[in-house]
Design brief:
The chain is an alpha+beta fold. The chain has a two-stranded antiparallel ribbon with strand order 1-2. Helices cover about 55% and strands about 15% of the residues. About 0% of the residues are buried. The termini are far apart.
């Protein structure tokens, strides 16, 4: 997947944060980066390594759990904010 595609899929992430994250994942051996110098500008593609692919079932399970529990999490946040608003003075505890 190319950098621009990743940036579109990861809505809201800055270019700097995406670049830093990709470099860390590459360093950890979860991603492989391939440069194609025969094009201008130079084309860069990323793909999961076997180690990265081994994480897919875990990531998919976490995503599924988050989607199934999102309403409860959001409700808990509202309750928390309501209960703690009175204890906050000028944005600090």
């Amino acid at each position: 997947m190319r950098f621009g595609e990743l940036k579109r899929v990861c809505e809201g992430i800055s270019q700097k944060m995406l670049t830093q994250t990709l470099r860390k994942l590459e360093r950890d051996g979860l991603l492989m980066r391939t440069l194609f110098a025969d094009t201008l500008p130079i084309k860069t593609e990323y793909r999961l390594t076997k180690l990265g692919e081994s994480l897919l079932p875990i990531v998919r399970a976490a995503k599924s759990w988050a989607e199934e529990n999102l309403h409860q999490i959001e409700a808990n946040r509202v309750l928390y904010d309501q209960n703690n608003r009175q204890h906050t003075v000028y944005g600090k505890f």
